[in-house]
């Protein structure tokens, strides 16, 4: 389906968000964060102790101001790949379509890693492209903030002395 401002090819490209960032830390340390469902539900700073609980196979992350977000783990391939289905947000319940969030951790020559994220499936969120493009817009900007937050969190922790509680 097209809308007045986008071609079908442009909408297909907009169905996903892809971002990446270089992090100066070992893959295993980045994995500790990335394997945690919903670590990116925050205000630009990763919470070391998130409000995270499980209801059967669903992880529920509670943000004090934004509410509850629900995730189902799709695949974990330590320490290289993690995928989660974003199944519920304060504005969408579990019965509505959802997006897939995938992370790849790739070691860089000379040390550190590149963390890549792809969130896909936005076109399935609504029939009208204007509706799902609006939902996508916040996430598009949000991934820039969240990847920087991941970098700051992981690099700070990687610099901490061994044996820190």
UniProtKB/TrEMBL annotation:
Residues 24-123 form the Activator of Hsp90 ATPase homologue 1/2-like C-terminal domain. It comes from the Bacteria. InterPro entries: ASHA1/2-like_C (IPR013538), START-like_dom_sf (IPR023393). Belongs to the AHA1 family. This is SRPBCC domain-containing protein. It comes from Streptomyces griseosporeus.
